[in-house]
Amino acid sequence: DTGVSQNPRHKITKRGQNVTFRCDPISEHNRLYWYRQTLGQGPEFLTYFQNEAQLEKSRLLSDRFSAERPKGSFSTLEIQRTEQGDSAMYLCASSLGSGGNTDTQYFGPGTRLTVL
Amino acid sequence: AQKITQTQPGMFVQEKEAVTLDCTYDTSDQSYGLFWYKQPSSGEMIFLIYQGSYDEQNATEGRYSLNFQKARKSANLVISASQLGDSAMYFCAMREFDMGRRALTFGSGTRLQVQP
Q1: Got the DSSP string for A1-43?
Q2: Which of A35, A50, B60, B82 could form a disulfide with A43 if both were Cys (CB 3.0 to 4.6 A apart)?
């Protein structure tokens, strides 16, 4: 039983470059979430997918950020024209979505982005 | 106003002793869920325990229990018989159900250090 996986684990980029992260959820989980965590803070919600539909987006998700989940399995998060303020850990989570309120979110190891 | 407040930035506990990590929350939803996650230095968020707002019994999961006081809007995590491997950041999180939202809102965390 594999958990949520994220690639790459670390990314260093120069300001102004585009970066893309990938998340593979737990198989059969139909909900997928992206969060951002800066140093010393708890994660902050960015966006969520039910299958391939993006159903909720935070105001934190500026127009430089785009997320996709084209076939309802893996997801990508792209940041265009990166800024130093984008430096953070980007966490992906998935949940079964089978109904009921618990619907626990299980997290991946994260991608740490450093923008120079 | 902060939705989740964790007032203890850091806590120390002796191995084999019990420790309580505080969490208070703020919501106007009638239906909500409270979660605790552990984040070791490796970065992955590990789900520990869940409490629903309508659950009459306090949740327990092995050495973890949740002291839920709905009128006081608190959901403190109790770890019994602390182990060295419990040293990590601990985050309290809430999901508000009334509008069908899926996002988790996290507190700023408590760093627990277990001493031998």
Answers
A1: ----EEE-SEEEE-TT--EEEEEEPPTT--EEEEEEE-TTS--
A2: A35
Residue A28, phi-psi category: left (phi > 0), alpha (psi -120 to 50), beta (remainder): left
> Pick from B46, B102, B108: which is nearest to A48 by CB?
B102
- Residue (of B65, B64, B47) closest to B106 by Cα position: B47
Q: Does A25 touch chain B (CB under 8 A)?
A: no
Residue B54, token pair as written in the block: 């309508």
Interval B39-55: pLDDT, tens? 999 889 999 999 999 99
* In contact, B106 and B5? CB cutoff 8 Å: no
Closest-CA distance, A109 to chain B, in angstroms, reads: 4
Q: Which residue shows structure tokens 């409270």?
A: B34
A102 lies within 8 A of chain B by CB: yes
DSSP string, B2-57: -SEE---SEEEEETT--EEE--EE----SSEEEEEEEE-TT---EEEEEEETT-SS
Task: Give yes or no for B35 touching A (CB within 8 A).
Answer: yes
The dihedral sign for the CA sequence B21, B38, B100, B55:
negative
